[in-house]
Write a structure and sequence with these properties.
The protein is built from eleven helices and twelve strands. By secondary structure, it is of the alpha+beta class.
């Protein structure tokens, strides 16, 4: 049970959700958007999240879209990871999402909830970083589209009260050669040590990471080192590791040194597999 009371709202439109947030914020309710609710419940139980109002976006039609418009895949932020896995419109996303928590949790965890969550893993964003996707955001200034890199590459950059509504991905990226590998310290559904997703486009390999730093990221500079095909692979990996952002996580799941050790082996495996496809 969450050890405090809160008000519950279920808007029927994006505009209503934004209006509710603004009004509740002025009342000092510290509102939060709610889609799957797993993080609110988990962190609320230990008082890491405290709110006077939740705004449930699951019933907003735009947040439940799953389909194509011309040559673009549109995914609503309110879609559960299980639904995305079963529909499988973006195989790399399906493979990455399949490794998040267990199936019971994935039935509730939503795409937007995972990407915008406080827990720093946020693996579901990795395929979108590799595919140069766009995000549709709603806020006090209306609806806008932005590059996923501007919003989700590294620390999350959303204005207060801004709502992630959809993610847009060009069809040409969806069936490209790809790989997603998640390494855990223990158990099949424990927190990840490192997740690496990779995609090959125009004979160049792109890589994105979760669990290595306190944010998911993709680094073009790191990719440049990995794609120097004339250089031995171990040397490329060594040079790529030098391009990592900081800080490297150092926690109960694994020390920074251990994470780097695991990363080196992962990058060698990923590059050997991707260069062979």
């Amino acid at each position: 049970m969450i050890p405090y009371d809160f008000e519950y709202y279920r808007p029927a439109s994006v505009a209503e959700a934004i209006r509710l947030y603004g009004g509740l914020e002025k009342q000092g309710k510290s509102p939060v958007y709610y889609s799957g609710g797993t993080e609110i419940i988990t962190l609320g139980r230990i008082n890491l999240v405290k709110t006077g109002a939740v705004i449930d976006i699951k019933h907003i039609p735009e947040c439940q879209v799953l389909g194509f418009e011309q040559n673009r895949l549109i995914l609503g932020a309110g879609l559960s990871l299980t639904k995305l896995e079963e529909a499988d419109p973006f195989p790399l996303l399906s493979k990455t999402a399949r490794e998040v928590a267990d199936r019971t949790s994935r039935n509730k965890i939503t795409l937007g909830g995972n990407i915008c969550g406080r827990i720093f893993y946020r693996e579901a964003v990795l395929p979108f970083l590799l595919a140069d996707s766009q995000v549709v955001l709603a806020g006090r200034d209306g609806i806008k589209r932005r590059s996923v890199h501007d919003v989700c590459n590294g620390n999350l950059r959303l204005d207060k009260g801004e709502l992630l509504v959809q993610l847009l991905t060009e069809r040409s990226y969806l069936e490209l050669p790809h790989v997603s590998i998640k390494k855990r310290k223990q158990w099949e559904t424990g927190y990840p040590l490192i997740t690496v997703a990779a995609l090959r486009k125009d004979d160049r390999i792109r890589v994105a990471f979760s669990g290595l730093c306190p944010f998911p990221f993709r680094s073009v500079e790191l990719e440049e080192e990995l794609n120097r095909r004339h250089v031995p692979l171990k040397t490329r990996v060594d040079q790529a590791v030098r391009r990592l952002p900081s800080p490297i996580l150092n926690d109960i799941e694994g020390s920074a040194e251990y994470r780097i050790f695991v990363l080196r082996n992962l990058l060698e495996d990923v590059m050997e597999e991707m260069e062979g496809k």
